[in-house]
Amino acid sequence: MIRFDDVSKTYLRGQSPALQDIDLEFARGEFAFLVGASGSGKSSLMRLVLKEATPTRGSVHVAGKDLARIPSWRVPALRREIGMVFQDFRLLPSKNAYQNIEFALAVIGTPRRVVRRLVPEMLEMVGLEDKGRRMPHELSGGEQQRVAIARAYVNRPSILLADEPTGNLDPATAEGILDLLAQINERGTTVLMATHDRAAVDRMRRRVVELVDGRVVRDEAEGTYESPTPVSVISGNVEDGDDPTEGDAGGEKPAGVGSVAAGSAAAVSGAAASGSAGSDVVEEELVPDARPRDLLDEAEEAFSEEALAEDLPHASDREEGAR
Amino acid sequence: MRGRYIASEILSGLWRNIAMVISVVIVTAVSLSFVGAGLLMQKQIFDMKATLVQESQVTIFMCSPHSTASTCAGGAATDAQIQSVREALDGDVLAPYIDSYSERDQDEALKIYQEQFSGQGFASDFTAKDMPVSFHITLDDSSKSDAVVEFFQGRDGVDEVSDLLSAYAPFIDVLNQTTVFAVGLAVLMLVAAVLLVATTIRMSIANRRREIAIMRLVGASNVFIRTPFMLEGAVAGILGALIAGGLLWTGTHFLVEGWLAPTLGSELITVGSADLLWIAPILVLIGAILAIGSSIVSLNRYLKV
């Protein structure tokens, strides 16, 4: 379903690559966790799948198509095949739950009668059939994420990408979200979830792919969050920032690049607990490289900008909801 | 779904940027008013020239007993002098210029004179002897009237040679200069309008960043994302053009038809509010094209795939 062939991605010439020599394949209907410290390349991987970024080297195939061969006007069609869920939900604050899901269908030209059938179906699937009229700030963090998942899945994509979907949620709520993702996976959608959620990974016992500094260091079929792999950063086997690939054939890279993310896993989980507003800041500190401004960044920016500009009460509501 | 969605997006976009939209509308309205005024003036010039060419008259007034010109020192023109003008008009030298001519004798002149000043006491005091003989010449080409005028000017017994085109020349000149001025102002204002539209669209994009990000994520097509912005600019531009049409109607109706035409004569002032029937669509088209054009440029700069 998703295949990376010898993919490397360097955002800025001269900087260390965000992804290096990635050879990965995710089969149709698979459920896989992407783990690794912040800045290890999980988000870059997802960006490549969405064709928001193009690989510097190698090729990415999604649903049997070589992304490099898809012309820009066909990219929207590709993205209709992929659902995306974020850590900070990214619901439109001016629309209620129903309208947020409806929006995803309306903007791709779905006929109204189909929308009227699909949206309630989705609300029911995520267990919010009685809360369709609530505005995002009137929903708890877990409920907001359910709406976000409904929005990502309403078009029945064959792939669902989730970037730390439980990062802002308490363990019990996170479990519910995970069950929802598993349920979507059972319906045949390939689910790829980037996470720092130890409990989630250990409970599910699915495929685990660990990235360290843009390289795949572990790919276990029924893995756990931590592992005895010697280069695993998140397991504490090696200090983040030390080059785990030292001694490897192609291991040389400019000095002083990996060190920015020292202790980042802890920093992010700390930030996650304190709500979404803080996590953007932490993310920015952790990822100081000049990533090209893209869709995700823009959304992020808009989110924090607008949270400041007009949704200040909403933002604090959301924080409370998350707790 | 799409139509309704796009319509509501346009409305909410316009409403969110209402201050900018108003300034776009005003600037567009004023600049297109200048464009329209320029068009009206050019039409007036065109009509006037057409009338003059059609008539293309040069008139030769022979001396009357009351003439004061130096060529009339000998009093009223003699029959010999009149005959020499007649012969010159029939001659080969002037043949290429002259289409036809008519001679107005003193009796006819008196009749016209008395008609013009009928009811006034002094008119009846004049007799045919006081009136000048005149020749009314229709030229082949009104722009070559100079040759005919020069030929007769200063001849003994010729009081005055008048050329309609040169009489109107200052007026046409003023209209032409004013057109240049109006079009210059219009261009300046239109530049401002285009930049304002671009800025408005940019702000609109910034306002809706979050929506746009989601739209792109769920696979909304490029056209679908851009259309509301483009139409937003177009609506503002067209609104400005319509207001410009209203301003011009007010101007032509009250100023031109209500004052200029009665004052200067409706044969001379041919433009009026009826001309807006063709000018207004042109203005709307200009407004729409400029607004959509600058929207596209702005979208390409600030909204990428």
From TrEMBL, chain A:
Comp. bias regions, Low complexity: 255-279
Ranges in coiled-coil conformation: none
PROSITE patterns for this protein: ABC_TRANSPORTER_1, ABC_TRANSPORTER_2
Boundaries of every ABC transporter domain copy: 2-238
Keywords: ATP-binding, Cell cycle, Cell division, Cell membrane, Membrane, Nucleotide-binding
UniProt cross-references to InterPro entries, sorted A to Z: AAA+_ATPase, ABC_transporter-like_ATP-bd, ABC_transporter-like_CS, ABC_transpr_LolD-like, Cell_div_FtsE, P-loop_NTPase
Protein known as: Cell division ATP-binding protein FtsE
Organism annotation: Brachybacterium halotolerans
UniProtKB/TrEMBL annotation, chain B:
Annotated FtsX extracellular domain residues: 57-161
Superkingdom of source: Bacteria
Pfam families per record: FtsX, FtsX_ECD
Residue ranges occupied by any ABC3 transporter permease C-terminal domain in the UniProt entry: 185-304
Annotated keywords: Cell cycle, Cell division, Cell membrane, Membrane, Transmembrane, Transmembrane helix
Transmembrane segments: 21-41, 180-201, 234-256, 276-299
Places the protein is found: Cell membrane
Membrane-topology annotation of the record: Multi-pass membrane protein
SUBUNIT field: Forms a membrane-associated complex with FtsE.
Function: Part of the ABC transporter FtsEX involved in cellular division.
Family: Belongs to the ABC-4 integral membrane protein family. FtsX subfamily.
Name of the protein in question: Cell division protein FtsX
Organism field: Brachybacterium halotolerans
